[in-house]
Amino acid sequence: MTFDIRPVRDASSRLGRAYMELPFELYRNDPSWVPPLRRSINAIISGRHPFFEHSRGEAFVVLAGSRAVARYLMLDPRMYNEYSRRAEARIMMPEAIDDGEVWGAMLDHAREWARARGATVLYGPRGFSPMDGAGVQIEGFDRRATMTMMPYTAEFYARRFEEQGFRKHKDFVCAELNAAAFTTPEKVRRVAEIARKRNRLVPSRPRNRRELRRFGAEVMEVYNQSWADHEEFRPFTEAEMRRTVEDLLLVSEPDLVVALRNDAGRMVGFVLTFPDLSGALQRSNGYVGLRTILDIAREKRRVRHYIINGLGILPEYRNNGGTAILYTLLEETLRRRNVVSAEMTQIAETTDRMLADMETLGGVVTKRHRVYLAEL
Fold it and tell me: I need a labelling partner for 113 at 20 to 30 A (CA). Which of 35, 278, 308, 340 fits?
């Protein structure tokens, strides 16, 4: 079969529409898939995402005749490579029909694109930053996707990557907490209480959405200092931080964000919890207008499943009881909202401490995503 691989630069063009619509066609009857926000995809295609202020990327559609059979985004993460002294490229948002020739054409082209930019390894799926979620799903297909925070992919994606010579790099898991049975262990509570008094740490929550915006900016500053020992980390730019804060304002509420502050008022740790708005996002079909905003507002009031997708603490407090305090505050947040269950997302299998904490809190792994790599 002959394929035509075309770059996509205009979201309103025929190719741009094909890029946008392909996953909607692939997952049309799949109740576990949650659509991406179309405006976000448009911004990516048009190069308006803040990632492109310091790095490069290019979107592609694979055509078989006039039919779009695959789409993907190639990334040259220059800022990350400079920060981490690596030479990697990434494939992001790969979507394709279940056909070996299609996958071969897509991933062969991805390798060529990466080599041409000096990369020595190609990772994927992997996004702009750790906030974007990563991997193809390999377990938990009966579970609905975690909003747009972790990708949902068909079961055959992993097999197709492996057939094309990609091998496992790392898995990320999602774990569910049953809030009815969720109680912070007494040992953790004692450590938390001692740490609070010794370090003079106090919890702090924004009182309204205006304060939530300010909290969001502080959270990003703490993130930049607390996640530096993670493989995927590189500092967020000011523009990326502003974008992340705007996303936070869309999906969260003031009382779901809790911070730890020292006696000088400085934020030293945080926990971010979100109501699971997947149902509203499915009904939106990817569009964000007044109807969707109102539906999201209603969903926030009635949903009883929540998502924990942000926890950070400055290194000097991490082994000094600070993490224990954050877990007690997390329990308090869940109980205040009468949460039935909560999902901890994107826990890397290489983070032994986080995995141990998840088990201590009674978490049960429900989903697994795999990032692949290919040496070039």
Answer: 35
